[in-house]
Amino acid sequence: MLPPSVQSALQSTHTTTFVSDLPQEIQNHKDQPVIIGVDEAGRGPCLGALVYGISYCLKSFEQDLKKNYVFDDSKKLTDAVRKSLFSQIWDISNSEVSKLSLELSQNVGYATTAIQATDISSGMLKFPPTENYNLNEQSHDATINLIHALVNKGLNIDHIYIDTVGPPHTYQKKLETIFPRIKFTVAKKADSLFVIVSVASVVAKVTRDLVLEQMISKIYHPQSMAETQDTDHKTEPVNCGSGYPSDPNTVRWLKSNQTPLFGWPKEITRFSWSTCQTLFKNPQTAIIIDWEEDFIVNGTNNNKKAAQLFMLNNKQEKLVTLDNWYF
């Protein structure tokens, strides 16, 4: 069975948010202070979603988290350990569940926002470029919306710890302006400093990895996806690597799966990444298109490009644009 955060993200190729039910201990003690951690997974890859995870528990449970569990920066944990930890939060259907696992699910709540590759690309490639919705802005908005979701649940929020995006001080001031009654700590490496952020890191990482894995399976193994959503179901794996541009397997996958016109599946590809842009500009692997918008620019090249258009018309050479393609 897939985690609910993954099932939610797979419902759309656009950004989705999942918010878990309040854990039992918080329902029983809603007047007690709650701490919250926020972290992301998948900021750098050119494939897959950027997932923001938020986790929370009673402040009184913080020491139990540190003492009884191995939460840490998700990059320091193995995939198996990450999945095991997350399953103890969301999956209590197993009759063999241990006392510690039950304790975790009863005390820790979470939420995720999966910013899909489709929205990352369309935001960063808006025209004109001055309208770009960059990744930092998308990240800030995802975090703010997740915090609003928990505020709306009526939690007695004592402190929120966040792994920074951009300069910590500036980001913290922004959040304090929006939520003046909440204390914030925004820091680099917060997932190693604060255990509740470590939990959020694990939630985000497991969700992102499973969403990418399931999307690739859906694209390349649609029959097997129709039969089951079991993460243990075996199909021949598609080796696209980690999704990071520095991963040779990812670069190899991009080169071997590129189609000349559309490139790669839009559901998983961040076309705004320079790795993809470079491959798209290679005439040996892609169809080079001169967009009409490229001739409509502000700046010193405006007159030159306008002249090029008039020269084509004067020579009675029809300029093929989208509006006259079928005529």
Automatic annotation (TrEMBL):
Keyword Zinc-finger: no
Reactions catalysed according to its record: Endonucleolytic cleavage to 5'-phosphomonoester
Annotated GO MF terms: metal ion binding; RNA binding; RNA-DNA hybrid ribonuclease activity
Keywords: Endonuclease, Hydrolase, Metal-binding, Nuclease
Pfam family, one: RNase_HII
Enzyme superclass (EC): hydrolase
Family the entry assigns: Belongs to the RNase HII family. Eukaryotic subfamily.
Stated name of the protein: Ribonuclease
Species this protein is from: Hanseniaspora osmophila
